[in-house]
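Budget justification note: compute hours in this period were largely spent on complex prediction jobs such as the one shown. Inputs:
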Amino acid sequence: MTLTIILAGVAVLLALAPLAVTIRDPRTATDVVYGISFIVSAVGLAAALVQLLSAAPPLTLALPIGVPWLGAHLRLDALSAFFLVVVDLGALGASLFALGYGRHETAPGRVLPFYPAFLAAMTLVVLADDAFTFLLSWEFMSLTSWALVMSHHRVPDNVRAGYVYLIMASFGTLALLLGFGLLAGPDGFYTFAQMRAAHPSAAIGALALMLALVGAGSKAGIVPLHVWLPLAHPAAPSHVSALMSGVMTKVAVYGFIRIVFDLAGGPAWWWSIVVLALAGVTTVMGVLYALMQHDLKRLLAYHTVENIGIIFIGLGLALAFKSYGMVFAAALAFTAALLHVFNHSLFKSLLFFGAGAVLTATGERDMEHLGGLIHRMPKTAFVFLVGCAAISALPPLNGFVSEWLTFQAILLSPQLPSWGLKILVPATGALLALSAALAAAFFVKAYGVTFLGRPRTRAAEAATETDSYSLAAMLLLAFLCLLAGVLPGLFIDALAPVSTALVGVHMPEQSGGQWLSIVPVAASRSSYDGLLVFLFMVISGTLAAVAIHRLATARLRRAPAWDCGYPDASPATQYTATSFAQPIRRVFGTTVFYAREHVDMPPPGDTRAARFTVELHDLIWEAIYAPLAAGIGYVADRLNRLQFLTIRQFLTLVFVTLVLLLLVLAL
Amino acid sequence: MSGIQFDIAHLLAGSLVLMSFLELYQDRLYALLNVYAAHAFVLAASVAWQAFIQDAPHLYVTAAIALGFKAIVIPVALHRMIVRLGIHREIEKVVGVGPAMLAGMGLVALSMVVMLRVTPDADPLAREDLAFALAVVLLGLLMMVTRRNAVSQVVGFMSLENGLVLAATGAKGMPLVVEISVAFSILIAFIVIGIFLFRIRERFDTVDVQALDRFRGERR
Amino acid sequence: MNGLLDLAVQGAQMLLVLALAPLLTGFVRKVKARLLRRRGPSLLQPYRDLARLMGKEVVLADSASWLFRVIPYLIFAATWVAAALVPTFRTGLLFSWSADLIAIIALLGSARFFLALAGMDVGTSFGGIGSSREVMIASLAEPAMIMIVFTLALIAGSTQLSSIAEFMLSPAVGLRVSLGLALVGLIIVAVAENGRIPVDNPTTHLELTMVHEAMILEYSGRHLALIELASSIKLILYVSLIACLFAPWGLAPSGAGAVALATGVSAYIAKLAVGGFLLAVFETSIAKMRVFRVPELLGAALMLGLLGTLLRFVSGSF
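Corresponding output:
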């Protein structure tokens, strides 16, 4: 029943896409498309929640469309239901936001048809129960998001972004195709049910892991396959960026979990080493790349890479525990990863919506041209602050809870017997702690330079508050961030069926805890009560305010800034994003990015300006992609000569190939 | 062997590793010599403790030699040498402190893994002390490899030798005569190096090893 | 009855920390002055400073926002809640299960997050310099602290501060290598987080040497009083933390009677005095480091924490 409702919603969305083309008036088209998407996502969310919370048995459906001898199999089990909740919640927020934001869209005809198709594709990926449906929906998802990335195609950066995205997406799908082919085996068991029953050998399972890591990992943003993400995510319109960062990467995580935890057989002990090593590198590199960014959306995209790394750390730990049969620890690590999936989709969408609001209000994405927006857009500034605090893992918000659970999983790891894991897990823990601290630092930068201070350009001075639809979407997400931080036990219990299905057991029941605290392992070991921490902070803050009100004077006056006695009216004297990042760039950038600073001072008497240059190298691009692209270009150039052969030479080629094939057949 | 004896032995061996890290961190020559003196002092304490718990009185002599020669005589002599040679007192590094520390961490992890995997049946106190000793040896080598100043390379060599002494005392039954010969050979090597340093200083005006290589006609 | 007593003890702990914080700051200043052969301000001077600030009018910059006015309360709330959860004279605090050591560090991290935002709010270069340096220091100090917490948690089997304190009191603890490493690391992190020499100078008036002072440059009146009180509370939090983890003698166990509680309080005050004295001697005997040498120091602390954790992962007897 729930499955049919969701599929009906998908059908509505797919029908909406061509409908959007026929409506003439862009305003009406915007309202219709986003309004209907909102309703469909709400219905889908409700259906998925019912399936997840009632812990019902999986629902399957086989449709006769698609490949002739296979049809299309669809399945709604606990894992699909959870990811469907994530997808639909993100879609809900994005549609609501876009009802207001979409009015400012300059090319609605290039966005509106593809948006509902994108939502439908993501839903189908999560529901797919056989390899063909999965890959078809995956490619459809890539294609529609590519179209959305290219919607502002006159901007040259966007064209390059779309190009890189298309190449990486095709490469990822190739890897997934090979992976599913391996799992299907020589007899062609393409449905997931058959793959589960087939119990692949260790070699096949290992290859499937590698291909899933490459295929799903490149879509999620694992270093070194992340290069498309910071180019493509900012290029799309803001609500689509939120969907790509907050939801599509999670669909990729779903693909990884489905293949590695469900279809590839029991994990070998060394699988977790590969996943953990990549995840640790991803976390730290993602956040360090954000160091040099002053484009608001690109900064957010790099932080997505970092958070995907955190999710994969949890998944890697779950694999490690599962392979040694330590199922309760595996449940903890797995639940931590899934909770971070949910939390990240919430605050990343919120942050992208805020960036979209800023973009609409000022026309600028570059932080160095903004500033002082807290005075002109107070409500947007408030919800953006909640998002920044959530992603920096500050209690009592939700980012802290999933990070805390991951730390608790790391603290259970000394029991793992493998030597490689004994060395790798503490190193990963250190990398995780380092990235959390750096993330907080960069969000101080992002918020401080964009919203605080004084406006740096006319555009920033002229900003106005966003419209009520966008604000409503952001407030909803901010409220959910607070809720998930203050009542985490509810969310952990909701994840229990998913954990049971994939790891075997689930975490202990959280709803009975004292004052709604969460106890991941045992009360004597550790516990956390988000509600109490929140209440304590509120109470002590109020006490302080009351005491100050009684004991201190209430006088206040406005005056020019003190600035140590040297106030400067020009807003150019305040810190920019690059200058804020300079100390951290000195510490980390010299090794990681070959950061070098050059100062060109004119000699005395020369009146030209001094010049300060910072040189940064993207080592991954220069070491892997640039040589690869150069190599391919070289080979292509050489093969180009095949275009200019005479007819006789073409015939010779055909003749030689024919003879070779006949030889192969003969032997 | 009771818990607290275990723990003190480990504490002293761990402090030796900590001293090696502290040597890696220094960038001034006099401070480095002081840290080396502390290194030798901790070694002497560790050997004395081993003498106490193994009930082996000849190790007390080893401890006294470590204290006398390595903690007092050698640092003072090196100090005098630096003053006489007029060596610039800042240590030029090939890699910065951060990467050197990270490499040091990796070396400690490596020695843990190697030592504890290779000796699963041995006495637990001895294997863990051996793991620390191997870490000290590797850190001494790291110091020699990442420093340009010849005096700091000598100090790295001596802390390496301290690690060897720690390993030898950890494994029961090292005779005293070996220790005397080892100490004297180090002393001789030190004197020889010192003479060479004087000669080089008179000729070339510097003891920066990279400058020396230039005069050997090698290009790097 | 027992529950009421526990509640009273928790409340007493919170008020004790609040009341003693300025006294500790005054004591450190007095000892530093004496070591420099000055008479120094009276021990109660910080209280007088706070009272004076409360009576002064707030001068707010034209470009300051509502966030600037709210932040002192947020910082104070976060720091006080964190300090209320560190056992000072008795373990087993009533609400100790609501936030473990990781949560306490995260609460201090949120206080620092908001303080850095306050530095950026008015839009001057001094605020920016303070905030950017503060987050650079924090980007290494916080991971170092978390690795130290891991080391302690792996030894004691829990991240709950009361449980760790009780474990340290019990005979099972022994003299471990990783504890020694954690102690050295914790001292370095405590110096860095509280903005003490060699990382930052709490008494400097030179703008280019400021970190903490630069961020609060624009604050005045009652806001400045709250922020100064919050930094004193942070100092007493770290001293109490080191005392309860590494010098737990005298801590009354949970459910103890009045005599044990009195002993606990007097032992705590003695530990504060010793800690303050050692801090003053340490600050007077070394010079402040150049800003870009601080990451090397904190990197060393991170390595110590990592080494301690690694040793605990590798073998249970380290």
